Amino acid sequence: MTKTLILSAFCAALASACTSAPATRPACPTAMQMEQPELLGLWQAELPGLPGPVTLQLAPHPEWNGTVKGQIQRPGGTAIVVGDVDKGKLTMEESADGKKVSGSWLGEVVDGSCGREIRGEWLDANDNSHAFVMRKPSKTP
Question: Signal peptide location in the record (predicted)?
């Protein structure tokens, strides 16, 4: 009986350790594999026809798991951004005043970019559409 209890406890501990271990992220995720960890950090965005440079600094959202919150810096000011990436699709909203949406980012992760390039459409508060390309600067050795 004692051996059974010890063996049961060992099996339970082993199962718990296996399920609680953090998942390893692929070194080069496909568009469909990209998740919040790859979205974190510094991004540079190009919006042809609009003033630049535009940079985004994204961090884990403090309240919503799997999403990001950060700042967008462009000529003329900054805004807050909140969003996520799901099955290769990026959705972000920005707010210049922290209350109402002043822009929406809808894009797709470029397959083969290892989660480092996103292309799509940015809509301003008046629903004017502008193409964008977001790129994560290359890692330095």
Answer: 1-23
